[in-house]
Amino acid sequence: MVPNTTPLWLFDLDNTLHNASHAIFPAINANMNVFMERVLKEQGLPSDQDAVNALRQRYWRLYGATLLGMVQHHQVLPDDFLREAHHFDDLFDMIRAERGLLNMLKRLPGRKILLTNAPLRYSRDVVRHLGLHRHFDQHISIESMRVHRQLKPKPSRQMLRKLLARERVAAHRCVLVEDTPANLKSAKELGLRTAWVTQYLTGNPHFASTGVRRMLTMHPSYVDVKVRSVRQLTGHLRRLVLRA
């Protein structure tokens, strides 16, 4: 088969296309804590808030998703964890996003895929609320990030290799747009172009404030383009998109 030379954009969702740090991430973390406290208590493990917070952060750092730590070390069912972690009574009121996202997507040449470590129902609702769903050729949520039937969400290089092979796209013609450095690093190791979106990092509960300030002064070698907002991507096309 002839490789596809059309540029392919892989867009993260939370803290890339909208400000999840405003209300959604704190709510998800609170929901996770309730779920994890119950599981840890049932398993006779320390389940006070300090222990739960530390474990949630540890699994996120180790695996890129707290879910994987809970599945691997505590035998929870992924669907149960995702359902409870992303339960909101007023999701649409919690969403904060910039104007101009639709125009930005229209101006980017090539195909777009939403690639998110969030579950399908939640991410679908957010993208539809933002009015962006028609501009993504595919919507890849965490449930479908599997390699040999095992969950392999970002930053999994195995998952990215499988995606590139399925789409018949060379790595250097693919751009990952993300807020999470670890995900960008693994993509760059495979040869993808990378764009780091930074404007929502300061409110991200995964990072201490001092760590964020230090991060914002950096431009790692695995980042091709560093932008505050995804709306600035159109000004960096020469660096991100190779001509055929």
Automatic annotation (TrEMBL):
InterPro entries: HAD-like_sf, HAD-SF_hydro_IA, HAD_sf, Pyr-5-nucltdase. Pfam families: Hydrolase. This is Pyrimidine 5'-nucleotidase. It comes from Herbaspirillum rhizosphaerae.
